[in-house]
Amino acid sequence: MGKKKVLIVTQEMEPYTNLSIVSKIARELPNHITKEGMDIRILMPRFGTINERRHRLHEVVRLSGMNIIVDEDDYPLIIKVASLPGARLQVYFLDNDEFFRRKQIFKDKDDNIFQDNTERMVFFCKGVMETVRKFGWPPDIIHCHGWMTSLIPLYLKKAYKDDPIFRNAKLIYSIYESPFEKELEDRFLEKASINNLEEGDLKSYLNGEGLDLHLGALKYADASILGDPGLEDDEKLLELLKSQAAPYHMPQSENLEEVVAGYMDFYNELTDETVPE
Question: Any idea where the Starch synthase catalytic domain is (predicted)?
Fold first, then answer.
């Protein structure tokens, strides 16, 4: 059997975006994945805050040129790549001038939420699926980090369920804070619908009171991780996590390296490749 293939999909990552628990974990993970002898690829948005010259981003022409349809409009998808400092790994960036040229990430300079964050999320999530197809690289594990990746579990299990590239993929959704749900609600079901998704598929993201990205993502994920230890006292979230039939992992340490090392055991358990004691 060849190397296990792990796809990391993250909305943030050091050193490209400001420090956050998402960006820290996404940066630490590749070290452990490569130590385990796994093959890894990393996808994230090319936010306008990322300095292309400093980080030496350049376009991957063979991967670019696709158009992604969002809410009946076409948007060109440009793929860029850079070498991750301190590691022999490449990070792939999904770019589009309409969504990612601005010099802020989720809010403008006056701290107002961008009104098109839903469209940006849909573009990114569908763009991830199409980019992996273009790689021709079938992942064994897809590990999603951040609310901006929360549609990928649905897309994987419904819109791309018959695609051979994703046939054996196990999807892990890491839970972090999702602070913009109220601002994303306007026509969410319509905007997030791609390919031939049915309205009932997307209703999993509604909890009766409004939009709940974690609820929808957990319904379709094969497993989940409490990515942000700061959420361990959120009783409503923990109840949601434990109510799912899928396995979940809660780190038992506050040390970042130990936390991420624990993910490796969870990866192996999920793919049934742990060595019997």
Answer: 5-225
pLDDT on residue 61: 93
pLDDT > 70 in the chain, percent: 98
Fold of 5-270: Rossmann fold (3.40.50)
Domain ranges of the chain: 5-270
Q: Which residues contact 131 (CB under 8 A, 6 or more apart)?
A: 43, 63, 66, 77, 79, 92, 94
pLDDT band for position 199 (50/70/90)?
confident
Regarding pTM above 0.90, the answer is yes
